[in-house]
Amino acid sequence: MKQENNKAHKFGMVIDLDKCTGCGSCMVSCMSENNVPFKEDESNKKDSITWMRVYKITNGKSFPDTEIVYLPRPCQHCGGKGDHGHSPCVSVCPATATDYGYDTGIVSQIYTRCFGCRYCMGACPYHARYFNWWDPKWPEGMENYLSPNVSPRMRGVVEKCSFCYHRYQAARDKAYVDGRDDIEEQEYQTACTTACPAGAIVFGDLNNPAHAVHQIVKPDPHPDPRNKHIVGKSRNPNVFRLLERLGTNPKVYYLSEREWVRKAGDNYLEGEWDEIKNHHGSSSHD
Amino acid sequence: MFPFNFEWAWDIAHVVFFGGFWYAIGILGAGMTFCILKAAYDTMKGNGASDH
Amino acid sequence: MDSALIPEGAKRCSFPKFAIGIAIVGAVLLWGVYAMFLCWFKGLNQTNMNDYYGFALWIWADLAVIAVGGGAFFTGLLKYIFKVDELKNIINFAVIIGFICYSSALLILAIDIGQPLRGWFIFWHANVHSMLTEVAFCLSCYFAVLTIEFIPNILENRQVNRVPFFHHLAHNMHGVMAIFAATGAFLSFFHQGSLGGVAGVMFGRPFAVREGLLIWPWTFFLFTWSAAAFGPCFTLLVAKITETITGKKLVKDNVVHLLAKISGWMITTYIIAKIIDTIYWATVTIPSLGFKLSHFYTNNSFYGYWILITEVVLCGVVPGALLIIKSTRENPTLRLIAIVLGVIGVCLNRWVMVLQIMAVPVMSFDTWALYIPSWQEIATTILPVAYGIILIAITYRYLPVFPQEQELNSIEPATEAE
Question: Rounded distance, CA C84 to CA C145, Å?
């Protein structure tokens, strides 16, 4: 039996921002799961490595109308314009050190191939890519807690969220041993998904209608009639993607019933939001 | 860079890019080889240094 | 003590004076070398770069030296392919400046990458779809071309030229130089362009992204054009500085006027294209992504509209106009102002296309990110300047760089003008 699956997956995530409390469990579990090194002082967020970073966003109104939302931001695993796999970072890497998995939709990072030019970081509008400015170090004794399934990274290379790809590999191995063709939804879940106490993160295969992520997102398989570069736009009126208009086609979706939160996901000219907010993929134009 | 590198594919992008590259390298290499060999030949012919 | 090495008939300062000058600049060079080794051994934590500023001062310096070094390929193209024969009197110098600029660019890249020992991966594991791959290949190849163009000048040193083989080699290389120059122009078109493409293809960065022709964004063509336009300005500027320091006239006015005129027309046509590009980007490209022009020039403490106006008008339209009008072009002061403004303009353009791209927030809840380089970054950026001064000093002293030098300095300056 071949270990590869015939049908391509498209792993993705939807994060319910109305459930997220900003507790940071996703960040901690991600760092721990993926052997992310840390500095003594992590207060400078511009050179600290946080594969999953929680942003705090406000509606900009003064008391008593102030509202806050916490937005967890892993790598968006962009499919690029038209969702052809040419994500902003993959297309620019000169040494083929970051690659798009057409069988999973996951954007990988090959640490031993990366030579640290940082072009991918410049190309990523989400700041999801991090450079190892220092040698990776852990407090004494903590090396014993490192995961043997994830290779630590050396100084001078770029790293980022992998959607816990090692968990996918483990799930696939288990399925193979069990004589199954494919993995079950619950067999492959990212560390942040399992750690979220509010259950705000749902992870699965966007191509599989049986998966919860697909049922929430209802991705539109057709290009957006307003912008042919956009594919996979959600048909759920409360679901949006970050900077969708750029045509990056992320596989991380966000869910919120609050209009101002959905509006914060992208940039709009004056008056444009009211025109666009009720547009949810090609079906809106039927 | 070479067809035996595993990134290599016989597609239009590789053929155009590396076609241009090896063509330029070829011209530079051939040009310098010609100059060096001709200089060695001229030297052996015994033409001493002279102003030109 | 080194008189046997100095070109025949040329007057040079005493060796101790020369050595003291080299030693002073050499101290600056050593400071840069020290910072360079700090970066190599301790890593890029020696810089103030961060995850917002993956590209910073060095990449700007890299782009700037390559842009101003464009004088070498463009002058070579004019001299060897378009047969503008007067330029033979400045081509050696243009090549030396180009050689300095490109060797500096390669050195900066070697310092800039996080894993310098893996630098060869960009060739070996090349992703042909990346603009940076195109830059690396064409840059390295063009540096080989510049080395080839520089060699005959080195071989013309008084002592080296006495060796028959070197004498013949220099002669033969001159004979086929047009082929090398054509190859250099071909490579330069692509690497100058792909440096522009580096920014233009970043579709996740609305400040950088441009539409274009086939796989090339408009910045590709603008970068090539601007390097050809402003590169000769830098050649003229360094020639002027060299003349001032040596106290001699080294290039005849007709040659300077010709190169300035060509540069002026190139700048003017470039700046028209740049203005059209900017208007199209501001009125079509960015509104389609949900941005207004003001987003990129307000709400921060540094990047205002001033930078756009300075780059395009003060350092683009003005030098272009000054250099195409005969009376201003032939006025030494106005010409100098024009070429200085031109050099500043192209450097400013490269700054904007590297650092401002990184500074602008893209996500609606993100903030502007400003950055101040560390002393190690500054020292390693000054390093190529010191290296360039030393190399120009050595080549000027020992090589016949300026063919008109003896003629110009054996007659009264007043009779030089045409």
Answer: 20
Report the mean per-residue pLDDT for chain C.
Answer: 94
Cβ–Cβ below 8 Å for A123 and C114: no
Tell me how far apart the alpha carbons of residues C198 and C193 are, in angstroms, rounded to a whole number: 9
A219 preceded by a cis bond (ω within 30 of 0): no
Whether C114 and A129 lie within 8 Å, measured CB to CB: no
> Between A and C, how many residue pairs show a Cβ–Cβ distance under 8 A?
160
- Encode pLDDT of A190-235 as tens digits: 999 999 999 999 999 999 999 999 999 999 989 999 899 999 999 9
d(CA C105, CA C66): 7
**8 Å CB contact of A115 and C122:** yes
- Give the residue on B whose Cα is nearest the Cα of C159: B49
Question: Is pLDDT of A5 > 50?
Answer: no
Boundaries of every domain in chain A: 11-285
Q: What's the CATH class of domain A11-285? A: alpha beta
> Are C176 and B31 an interchain contact pair (Cβ–Cβ within 8 Å)?
yes
Q: Are A151 and A110 a contacting pair, CB within 8 Å? A: no
Domains, chain C, ordered by start: 49-371 (1.20.1630.10)
B-chain CB neighbours of C168 within 8 Å are 38-39, 42-43, 47
The closest CB to that of C187, out of B24, B43, B48, belongs to B24
With contact defined as beta carbons under 8 Å apart, do A74 and A52 qualify? yes
Q: Is the pLDDT of residue A286 over 60?
A: no
* C373/A43 Cα distance (integer angstroms): 20
Please report the ipTM that was assigned to this predicted complex.
0.92
CA triplet C139, C143, C145: central angle to 5 degrees? 120
Peptide bond into A64 cis (omega under 30): yes
| φ, ψ of residue A249 in degrees (nearest 5) | 50, 65
